Each structure stands twice: as structure tokens, then as C-alpha cells.
Amino acid sequence: MAEKHPYASPGLVIAAVSQFRKSFPPKVTADTLRKLSIAPNNESYVINTLRFIGAIDPEGNRSDVSTAAFNQHEDLAFQKSLGEMVKNAYAELFSLHGDDAWNLQFDGLIAFFRNSDQTSDTVGRKQASTFKALANLAGHGEVTAPTKPTAKPREPKPKSAKPKTSILAAATNKRVVESGNGEPRDVGLTVRIEVN
Question: Could you read off the pLDDT of 59-83 as tens digits, one per residue?
Fold first, then answer.
């Protein structure tokens, strides 16, 4: 094994491939992905995945193979070309399972990646998810559209005509004090704080 299998969020991989089907720049760098608003703070994971499948070379230049694949206008032609790229990149997986690798159960993929790369369960799961995303893009499964994070609209706070009064503290302290005629008299002290 020359290189460990890469991993990236499936949504980011799908977003990158979808963008590059529309327009594949001659060179892909972290700056390119930032300008395209793809994979913020995760650019290296997407670049490693693109490099692994042969879409770009080690310097980030678009490869001849990817130019031919990503220029395919028809979905089926693109899926077939991308499928060949993925199959070549994951040659060991396909040599073990043949074309059944496309539809291998998730646990089977995790086992393969963990044993091939000596990775943790978490990394093995991420590698399996990345492969599944690439398989889906190659026509072996359903591709879900990448989603962009959206900000939740703020709900305005209800305004009332009357200011609200909150009692923060109230204390009562009673004392028995003698009055001038010698009889005991109750004296009380109350503190009340209100915030409007």
C-alpha cells in the first residue's frame, strides 16, 4: 500500500465534483476551493480525495483523465468515466470484491479500510463514507444534493405596550423595639428591587 485511502465529508466531495462538472479550473488549490465556497476549513481533505482518484496531480493541476471525464455532458457518460477513475484508485478493493465493491455493505467497507490502512474505527467509517459518495457519483447509488448551511432566521421578540416588571429580590426583617411609653412595637423593613 503506497498511500492511505483519503476521506472527506461526502457532501463536500459531491459539491466539488458537481462544481467541476460545470467548470473545472486548470489548477485546484485550497484557495480555489475557498473562492468557490467549497469545503471551508476542510480544503485539504477534498484535495487529497481528488488527488487520490487522479482528478488532479500532486501540484493540483487538472489531469488529462479528469478533463476527459468532467467534460462529458451526458450523465451516463460522466458516471462511466468517473467510475473508471474510482475503480483505478481503489484497485485493491476491486481486486478483492470485483464489481460487487460498488454495493458492498458499509461494515464490509469499514473492515477493508481499517485493515488496509491500520486506521481507527472513526477514520475507517470516514473512508467508507468517502468511497460511497464517489460510488454514488459514479452511478452506483443515489446522490444527494449538497446542501449549504443556512442561517436560521431570528424570531423577533414580542413587544408589549406595558414594560414588564420583575421582582429580583424581596426581604423582610422584623424587629421588636420598645416605644417611648415602654410598650413593645413591631418595626418592619422591606426591600424591593424592580427592573423595568
Answer: 999 999 999 999 988 999 999 999 9
pLDDT digits (tens, 9 = 90+) for 28-71: 999 999 999 998 888 999 999 999 999 999 999 999 999 999 99
Q: Phi-psi category of 105—alpha, beta or left, where left has phi over 0 and alpha has psi -120 to 50?
A: beta
Residue among 72, 96, 69, 95 at smallest CA distance from 83: 69
CB 122 within 8 A of CB 110: no
d(CA 103, CA 140): 7
Cα separation, 36 vs 29, in Å, equals 11
Expressed in angstroms, the distance from the first to the final Cα of the chain is: 70
pTM metric for this prediction: 0.68
Q: Which residues contact 47 (CB under 8 A, 6 or more apart)?
A: 28, 29, 30, 33, 56, 60
For residues 47 and 16, what is the distance between their CA atoms, to the nearest angstrom?
9
**Nearest CA among 75, 76, 57, 54 for reference residue 65:** 54
- Nine-digit cell string for 34: 475557498
* Helix, strand, coil share of the chain (percent; to 5): 45, 15, 40
Cβ(86)–Cβ(58) below 8 Å: no
